[in-house]
Amino acid sequence: MDLLRTEHAFQDGLIGRSQDVLRVVRGNARESAETMFGVYRKAYWARLVEALGNDFPALNALMGDEAFDRMARAYIARNPSQHPSIRWAGRRLAEFLAGEAPYRDDPWFGDMARFDWALAFAFDAPDAPAAALADLAGMPPEFWGTIRLQFHPTLDHFGVSTPVDEARLRLLENADVTLDRQARCDRAIMVWRIAYDLKFRAIDLLEHAALQAMQNGATFGDMCELVAQQVSPDAAPLRAAQILQGWLECGIVATVGHEGLGSAA
Amino acid sequence: MAERAVTDLGFGLGLRSQHYPAILEGTPDVDWFEIISENYMVDGGRPLAKLMAIRERYPMVMHGVSLSIGSTDPLNMDYLARLKALAARVEPAIVSDHLCWTGVAGLNMHDLLPLPLTEEALAHVAARVDQVQSFLGRELALENASTYVTFAQDAIPEWEFLAEIARRTGCRLLLDVNNIYVSAFNHDFRAIDYIDAIPREAVAYIHLAGHENNKTYIIDTHDHPVVGDVWQLYAHAIQRLGPVATMIERDDKIPPLEELVQELAHARKVAAAALKKQAQVA
User: Fold this and answer.
1) What's the confidence (pLDDT) of residue A234?
2) Which of B109, B120, B153 to probe the A interface (max A CBs under 10 A)?
3) DSSP string, A194-259
């Protein structure tokens, strides 16, 4: 068997597609080829399950070790790793849990996986300074409508239907904690990093819509119009300003730019 | 190409995140650190910051696990570009990876998988080592991985395979003495024969590690201290090769730094005694 076919047969043996590899590998004087090849096969699955456990600690605590192991193996079978770093092996896990029976029947799983992943992403995303509220000081009122934001490269955000933001820390402190698994909500979570500290905050759907719009290039004026669709026209500018202020205070904005003057941070 | 002075680095440890505070707050008796390249091929955050803070104080070697030099998939040029960028940042004494493959058809098994030891594989690996060294603009060191199976088509002993790759490409070798011991046990050959066949000028540095003995085979777990037999083999290697940079690799069940520093002190003693014996024989 040539090198190419040998490697494909070996890999197929690891991931369980075929056992043809046993025709070309040899064990030793004490153990069969099957036993010795089994060292590789067991290590393949164990290593990936362990990596997923490291990257999804709260999901692991939520499911328990046995169920997590079973789920992780099902995920790996459907989504073998394609990245040189094992750290990316779980990038499709939240999507898998949201779409795959029986996991899709419990939205806690997909939400917690998404939360864990956002924290793992923010951990080593690019460094960048954050803009501050002071960057808006002295800005002439006529420019406010044209403000555009560049968000911090560590920022991630996603909608959830379960209160995983309230449960995560409790679960990590005590995996046996009693949670109200029937609890549902309708909000979003922002995750980001300041220096080396990971941060998160729950936001309502209006703020989430505003964040998505600004991230897609909308101006502050556009955002005020979007807010005005949800609150009274009189209250919209203040609410939009409060949202902007909150973003600058918590450090998720990298730069503030406006028409004519470019970036202010 | 890098200076061959890598062999003079002294005694090092694998850099593990658990030890960042102890390294940065103290002055551990460690001459250099080896990093797992993939752990730092990231865009920012704490890992890179700690890495560079430690790099300011210690020489480093970059050791990868995903080059997949033996794969029949094309070389992953994105990976190589990131490796090269990290090397530009870290300025390591040498860049190393393993004689192995890690996946085909675009997949990564995240393991150091064995190659059939054939003329075809030899030509394939040598061509890719040339390609990698040319791209990186520096020498690569290849490590012997622990293996658990052999192949029906094997035609070349692993030590000859490695020596020939070094001869054809000018690459260096990272001699893992524990891996030699593990593979020798698993495949019933003499570990000393392996070491005696390695061209001494090709050896860049030596790895030492622990393993798990299951009686009928040994697994290279890197989660235990170095065992007595491996220390003896290491002494033999130093007697034959002369002074070579040496490091202890612990990947799991990571003990406090002080424990590894003590184990490293033992490596210094074993090497010193071996060199003394070598001088007496000469």
Assistant:
1) 87
2) B109
3) ETTEEEEEEE-HHHHHHHHHHHTT--HHHHHHHHHTTS-TTTHHHHHHHHHHHHHHHT-EEEEEET
